[in-house]
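Task card 7
Instruction: Convert sequence to C-alpha cells.
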Amino acid sequence: MDRLELIEVAGNSYVVSGKYGIGVYLDRPSKIAVFIDSGPNATVIEEVCTKISNRGYQIFAVVHTHGHAVNHGGNLYLKKRFPNIRIYATHLASYLIENPHLEPLVFDAGGGPDTTPDQNKENVRALVTDYLPSIDGIFHVHTIPFKIVSLPGHSPGMVGIVTPDHVLYCGDALFGPKTLNKQNLLFFNDLRAARRSFKKLSMMKLNAYVLYHGGAFKTVTGLINKHLTLMKDTSAFLEALIQEQPSTLEQVVQKVMKKYEFEDDLHRYGLTASIIRSYLKELQHENRIVAKVDNGLLLFSKPAATT
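Output:
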C-alpha cells in the first residue's frame, strides 16, 4: 500500500490520499482534529492518526456521512486508542455503524462481506455518542461549527459535512472519475432522492467538494452530468429488456451481470440485485413497467396498452 498523506483542500480542511477520501479538519486554535469518516480498517486509520499526531493535534471526534462498513471500519481502532472520542452519525446511519453484521444481510446473497472486519477480541463497541439530524442545519464539534447537508440517495440517512472553510465532504453522494470509468452500474438505493441530491449539489457555491471515492474537486458539474447519463442509460436498458420479454428479478440480474461482465460472486450478486431493485422501483413508479405475481413468480413486464 502506498504511503498515505494529508492533502490540504482549503484552509484547515484536508483529505487523505489514496483509495478512500477520509476527511480531516485540523482546528488550529484548539489543536484538535476531526475525522469525516474513518476509513475501511485499522491499518489505514492508524497511519492517518500518526500523521495527525506528528503535527501536534489531538484526535477528538469522527463525523460519519453514512453507515457503510468501508466508511466506519476505523472506528474500533479509534475507540480503543482514544476511549473518549466522540462519534457522530444520523440515527439511520447509526444502526449499521453499531451493528456492522447487518450490512451483509442487506447487500449479500448468502455470502460474507467483501472485506474482512478487524478482530474485536476485547469486545469493544464503537457506539455513536452524538446523533446528527438528517436535515440541513448546523452542529458543533467542540467549538467548531459544521454544516449538515442532507444528501439522500446512496444510503439511508446520508449527509454531507461542510467545514468552516466551505469544503463539503459528500460521502458517496457522488463518485469520482475512476469509479465512473470502470463501473457503469452505480449504487443508489433511491434514484429519485439521488437526483434531488445532485440538483442540490449543483446549486451550492463552495470552495471544494470531497468525494469518499474520488478525492477533492473544485467543481462537480461534470461529474453530476456523468452520473445522470449512466443512470439514464441503465434505466433505458432495463426498460427495453423487460418490455421485450416479461422477466423475474433473477433473470434481470443475470442479464445485467452478463452485460457488465461481473464475476459470479455472492457479494457481487447481492449488490447488483439491490441496485436493480432500485431501478425497477422507479420504473414502476413512472408506469414504464408493471409487476405481478404469476404462478408464484414475481414478473416484471410492459404496461398493458391503453385504448
